[in-house]
Amino acid sequence: MLDYTQLETLAAVLRHGSFDLAAAQLNITQSAVSQRIRQLEEHVGAPLIQRGSPCTGTDTGNRLARHLQEVALLEARVTGKAAGAAARMRIAVNADSLATWVLAALARVPDHLYDVVVDDQDHSAEWLKRGEVSAAITSVANPPRGCESIPLGAMRYVASASPKYVQKYFKNGVDKSSIEAAPSLVFNRKDKLQDTWIKQNLRVIHSTKSHQIPSTQGFVEAARLGLGWGMNPHGLVDHFLVSGELVRLREGSDLHVSLFWQHSRLFSDMLSPLTDAIRAVAKENLENVDKLTNH
User: Fold this and answer.
1) pLDDT tens track for 201-244
2) Distance (Å, rounded) from C-alpha 49 to C-alpha 92?
3) Is 133 exposed, middle or buried (0-12, 13-18, 19+ CB in 10 A)?
4) What pTM, to 2 d.p., does this model score?
């Protein structure tokens, strides 16, 4: 049996990245924190914390902290009591969804404490597969074993840039030659949306030279200022398209990325209020996939 006082201490250290801060939160001494961690490590037979600034968890340590979160959430759900500090609902979300609609869904279930992990929509499901999150918003339709996948709709992306940028690089239209010369924007190395758009519209597989902008709002601003072209969420740039500060590279070339809410079946009941909120807000903000298919 695991000692949950020791688990709470482990979670506090990993949450704050410091033995001192964990001790302050728990209202105990730093030596007491160290003793609890040492006892837990001896019990499980593995190191749990990588000492440093900040302290981080080993694979085993992260799994134990995650276990505590899930138990605390289940207890709060069963007892009807407010969730404590350990009861954090950890979910993986792509940055564009976080910047456009997910926060509105989280706000509909304010009784939980959230720990949001940001990753590309093509990779966020890996967090769920590894057991590091309770749920994920992903573009991957098939869920990991033991998990459920719920379709949410499609996020519409617009290949867009400033008028001056388009005049400079695409004066004679967008083709293989001009796209090679035009710097693009990418969120990070996992971001393949620009390559996907090029493949679909130019029938070539080609990676352009690019600026890496790891911020959804910064990405839009970089396009508006003429730094490069990129795939921007329609909800964030529609007013710029109307005002003319941004223009489409090609009309009728918007890219639709289907999104899914995936979670472990084991925690379906615990997650049901958030699942309902995610589905409702997604319906208000995402495109209807069936209508797109029929069209």
Assistant:
1) 998 876 678 999 999 999 999 999 999 999 999 999 999 999 99
2) 23
3) buried
4) 0.78
